């Protein structure tokens, strides 16, 4: 039997983000509740066709990267997080040199292209298997002209012009050879495809996506937020394969006047069982048992979602994310919380504050509360100081006291924007 080709992804994310301004690199900037890089990683981590991920990032952000991905449940396919080199090409070469022997195909994808879809990734993989080298690209829409000293000199035929994106996919042996030759000749290219072209190999084009933008400026952030703003009606724009089929039905929120405040409450409970991870507020908590459920059974996040939906009179999580639908099996509740937050935003509401309580005899949640607040605040695009989470026991009374399950309740205040 022919062995299955193993596919590795290298995600360079070591740029300084100078064009963006601000105090942190652009790849760690917030986009809809999580970092741009985390959104990019999730696009690949959700696909069965991807076997491992290598991330190359800034030395000062290695731990931040690892912690965020761990808390979002995205570390299962991440093989390593490396310190980047001086140039993008140097960073990728470091990762290439550390790939295991059983990897046959390598994808390279920019860490600041968070809206890549599963379809584009799969097309690139299949073309790379067939031809050895493939890149995602879209036809140029604008008329492209050449100029010298501010004078037009030539108009190019745009029918033959493409805007090349990532992912770019290659047979591993071909990519290694191309990089080795580039360094032997002291040549630096603008992407990986040009290095492969330099050694005489042909690179095939697959259909990309115009939403697969590279976020390098504040204008790109604005466009990215616009893509996220259309999440509910057009989830294809989000590069999360687990959410590709989410179509929220158009629904009117409760009528109300501008500036009106509304209160919502939520409650949820799940059974503790062996063989499951314990996820609370998006944080994986070390414990011998986890909560049983169709999704990740994050009882705290479920209670908060129900409270938010209730405050806006938009039903409950069972209505929007039923446990009879296979596309929600194992899905991160934080991902669903982002959807709920977008729903409220689209109906004209902002969240004033959240107060939630986790009821559990064991384990202690106090050491994890700050991480829970940080993750939920990012998901809902709100300040951490507006979220309060606390834990309590039932003094060993009832099912929670006997350690049979964990419950959570939440209260929220929302307000119509003026």
Automatic annotation (TrEMBL):
Site entry: Transition state stabilizer: 19, 26, 294, 393
Pfam families assigned to the protein according to its UniProt record, in alphabetical order: IspD, YgbB
Similarity field: In the C-terminal section; belongs to the IspF family. Belongs to the IspD/TarI cytidylyltransferase family. IspD subfamily.
Tagged with keyword Transferase: yes
Keyword Cytoplasm among UniProt keywords: no
One MF term in the entry's GO annotations: 2-C-methyl-D-erythritol 4-phosphate cytidylyltransferase activity
Ranges for domain 2-C-methyl-D-erythritol 2,4-cyclodiphosphate synthase: 262-414
Pathway: Isoprenoid biosynthesis; isopentenyl diphosphate biosynthesis via DXP pathway; isopentenyl diphosphate from 1-deoxy-D-xylulose 5-phosphate: step 2/6; Isoprenoid biosynthesis; isopentenyl diphosphate biosynthesis via DXP pathway; isopentenyl diphosphate from 1-deoxy-D-xylulose 5-phosphate: step 4/6
Catalytic activity annotation: 4-CDP-2-C-methyl-D-erythritol 2-phosphate = 2-C-methyl-D-erythritol 2,4-cyclic diphosphate + CMP; 2-C-methyl-D-erythritol 4-phosphate + CTP + H(+) = 4-CDP-2-C-methyl-D-erythritol + diphosphate
Site (Positions MEP for the nucleophilic attack): 158, 214
List of residues binding a divalent metal cation: 268, 270, 302
Cofactor annotation: a divalent metal cation
N-terminal signal peptide: none
EC assignment: 2.7.7.60, 4.6.1.12
Stretch list, region 2-C-methyl-D-erythritol 4-phosphate cytidylyltransferase: 1-261
Protein function: Bifunctional enzyme that catalyzes the formation of 4-diphosphocytidyl-2-C-methyl-D-erythritol from CTP and 2-C-methyl-D-erythritol 4-phosphate (MEP) (IspD), and catalyzes the conversion of 4-diphosphocytidyl-2-C-methyl-D-erythritol 2-phosphate (CDP-ME2P) to 2-C-methyl-D-erythritol 2,4-cyclodiphosphate (ME-CPP) with a corresponding release of cytidine 5-monophosphate (CMP) (IspF).
Region called 2-C-methyl-D-erythritol 2,4-cyclodiphosphate synthase, residue ranges: 262-418
Protein's UniProt name: Bifunctional enzyme IspD/IspF
Assigned keywords, A-Z: Isoprene biosynthesis, Lyase, Metal-binding, Multifunctional enzyme, Nucleotidyltransferase, Transferase
Superkingdom, natural source: Bacteria
GO biological process terms held by the UniProt record: isopentenyl diphosphate biosynthetic process, methylerythritol 4-phosphate pathway; terpenoid biosynthetic process
